[in-house]
């Protein structure tokens, strides 16, 4: 388990730092962040499309740890190429590298998480493993922007990007050598997939599972709605911090304070998520995954609504941390629900496709907040809070058994 967590953290550290690195590379070399935004779009776009294919290939891989190591190698190589070409080579070159790296992205997120079902036995140990896996995401979200920004401040954007490539390279070595023997994974997960039929059937297995299994359908719809808001939270946070600092600064100082304040808010949110995930790993009486997800969404919504209306910036920071504390267990609940309800032979597809859809929804949310940036910042943050409540309502509505089944249950108990 320690080798898995080290691999997951290093891979996700690289993933979490890409957006910051691309923006800084473009700004340093072209004077504008626009190129970085284009390349980031090329990086994110393939995730949902590549997720079913990546999941199907992972399911049928005879040596899963080599497959994951190979995908991470492509991921790290793409980041290295971006560091060398953004702002220095024709645009098609970094865009092509970004597309290839984005195609490996689902393995870094859902693909690695899907291995836990074969690495850890069922019960309390597996629930704790998923909580620690969720913590690896939060830890990477806290560490990556700081590591890249510090490296850029000391040197330049190139070495900052190289740091991410090295992190992905270390994850590659760990995945190929330190994870448990592939025969164990194959015996549990890959075997049914090899006899499932044609590759095309395996590719669509995850889609069918997400649609036909009520719990997975409810979870996927709810998390997509939630991340439509969360994807726009970084932009909304920067604008909210700017509004809070307008009274005390002007000009360049105000712009600097706006960016720094937004970073403080998102760092508080990520730190809260890390504490929430680690706390859940130690909570022996944690509720079942569906109730945990519902409570997490509601807690995040209430804290963000309070942050939008807070009269002082320190209180806003505290409420962003509280929102992260509520959001952290959501990923743990998501991983547990996918593991519990994914059909045999489609586990990895369920994980990769679910993560890809979530990321695509987050990208759409970021674009939406950009279009609505003229609205009051508090209204934007309230919109993010509302998306969490809407997600809770979707989860509640879709995760109910059919009325006929409820009727039979009441009849039998009477």
UniProtKB/TrEMBL annotation:
<keyword id="KW-0472">Membrane</keyword>
<feature type="transmembrane region" description="Helical">
    <location>
        <begin position="35"/>
        <end position="54"/>
    </location>
</feature>
<dbReference type="InterPro" id="IPR011701">
    <property type="entry name" value="MFS"/>
</dbReference>
<feature type="transmembrane region" description="Helical">
    <location>
        <begin position="292"/>
        <end position="313"/>
    </location>
</feature>
<keyword id="KW-1133">Transmembrane helix</keyword>
<feature type="transmembrane region" description="Helical">
    <location>
        <begin position="218"/>
        <end position="241"/>
    </location>
</feature>
<feature type="transmembrane region" description="Helical">
    <location>
        <begin position="66"/>
        <end position="86"/>
    </location>
</feature>
<feature type="transmembrane region" description="Helical">
    <location>
        <begin position="261"/>
        <end position="280"/>
    </location>
</feature>
<keyword id="KW-0812">Transmembrane</keyword>
<feature type="transmembrane region" description="Helical">
    <location>
        <begin position="92"/>
        <end position="120"/>
    </location>
</feature>
<protein>
    <submittedName>
        <fullName>MFS transporter</fullName>
    </submittedName>
</protein>
<dbReference type="Pfam" id="PF07690">
    <property type="entry name" value="MFS_1"/>
</dbReference>
<keyword id="KW-1003">Cell membrane</keyword>
<dbReference type="InterPro" id="IPR036259">
    <property type="entry name" value="MFS_trans_sf"/>
</dbReference>
<dbReference type="GO" id="GO:0022857">
    <property type="term" value="F:transmembrane transporter activity"/>
</dbReference>
<dbReference type="GO" id="GO:0005886">
    <property type="term" value="C:plasma membrane"/>
</dbReference>
């Amino acid at each position: 388990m320690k080798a898995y967590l080290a691999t997951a953290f290093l891979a996700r550290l690289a993933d979490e730092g890409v957006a910051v690195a691309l923006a800084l590379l473009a700004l340093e070399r072209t004077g504008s962040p626009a190129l970085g935004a284009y390349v980031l779009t090329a990086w994110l776009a393939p995730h949902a499309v590549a997720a079913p294919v990546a999941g199907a290939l992972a399911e049928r891989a005879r040596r899963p740890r080599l497959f994951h190591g190979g995908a991470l190698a492509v991921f790290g190589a793409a980041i290295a190429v971006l560091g060398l070409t953004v702002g220095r080579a024709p645009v098609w070159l970094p865009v092509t590298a970004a597309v290839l790296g984005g195609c490996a992205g689902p393995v870094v997120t859902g693909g690695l998480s899907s291995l836990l079902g074969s690495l850890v036995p069922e019960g309390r140990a597996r629930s704790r493993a998923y909580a620690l896996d969720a913590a690896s995401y939060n830890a990477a979200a806290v560490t990556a922007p700081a590591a890249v920004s510090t490296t850029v401040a000391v040197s330049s954007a190139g070495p900052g990007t190289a740091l991410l490539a090295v992190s992905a390279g270390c994850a590659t070595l760990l995945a190929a050598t330190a994870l448990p023997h592939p025969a164990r994974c194959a015996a549990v997960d890959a075997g049914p997939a090899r006899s499932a039929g044609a590759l095309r059937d395996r590719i669509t297995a995850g889609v069918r599972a997400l649609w036909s299994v009520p719990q997975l359908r409810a979870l996927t719809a709810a998390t997509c709605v939630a991340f439509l808001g969360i994807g726009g939270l970084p932009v909304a946070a920067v604008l909210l911090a700017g509004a809070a600092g307008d009274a005390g600064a002007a000009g360049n100082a105000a712009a600097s304070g706006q960016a720094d304040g937004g970073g403080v808010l998102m760092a508080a949110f990520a730190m809260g998520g890390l504490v929430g995930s680690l706390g859940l790993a130690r909570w022996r009486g944690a509720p079942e995954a569906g109730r945990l997800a519902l409570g997490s969404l509601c807690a995040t919504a209430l804290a963000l609504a309070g942050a939008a209306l807070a009269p002082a910036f320190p209180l806003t920071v505290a409420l962003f941390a509280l929102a992260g504390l509520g959001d952290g267990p959501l990923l743990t609940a998501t991983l547990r629900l996918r593991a519990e309800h994914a059909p045999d032979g489609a586990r990895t597809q369920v994980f990769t496709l679910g993560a890809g859809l979530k990321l695509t929804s987050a990208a759409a949310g970021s674009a939406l907040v950009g279009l609505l940036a003229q609205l009051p910042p508090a209204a934007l943050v309230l919109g993010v809070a509302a998306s969490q409540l809407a997600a809770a309502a979707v989860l509640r509505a879709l995760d109910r058994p059919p009325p006929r089944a409820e009727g039979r249950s009441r009849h039998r108990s009477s």
